[in-house]
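Task: complex structure prediction.
Instruction: return structure tokens for all chains below.
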Amino acid sequence: DAKTTQPNSMESNEEEPVHLPCNHSTISGTDYIHWYRQLPSQGPEYVIHGLTSNVNNRMASLAIAEDRKSSTLILHRATLRDAAVYYCILRVDYSGNTPLVFGKGTRLSVIA
Amino acid sequence: ETGVTQSPTHLIKTRGQQVTLRCSSQSGHNTVSWYQQALGQGPQFIFQYYREEENGRGNFPPRFSGLQFPNYSSELNVNALELDDSALYLCASSLVNRGQGETQYFGPGTRLLVL
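Output:
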């Protein structure tokens, strides 16, 4: 599986936008970019995914570089509840047979 | 709609013992995956079950085994427990239709401590 690189930690002020970067320079043409997050004492939860175009949903936006070698998860207004570990994951062909390969992720702290 | 549930929430065992962890999938899901998460690390894939058959396995020894039942609930069994098996064990369910996967929905996990 192609690997991703994320900063170990980031900090944000409450109600400010947060941009969480992810590098995936060895991404293949059929790899989808998935983001999951893990709140304290909980299992991971799905945030968003995309292939080539930028994506928006109620939780976040995903901006994908034109060469697809990097992406950015955007939280438009961070709240205390967004404090979590965020994982950027590449998943082949969006196949149900492909497990999620987690790295260490980025630990986001939100300051009130 | 009921989410993914796991039991027990916490468990303490001693080295050499055997343990069974349980997972109830989200309603309508036919696939369950198990992950092990050591402290400070991301989850690591153990194996996946699809329609009661093992359908992929990570780098874990045979003493890690599982079952999926007709109602799509699942068990993870670990024999001959070792200290390094201490971790959070996560179950994730999804609906796989014609090879196209969907989002995985995780349970809250079972925290296992091996003494």
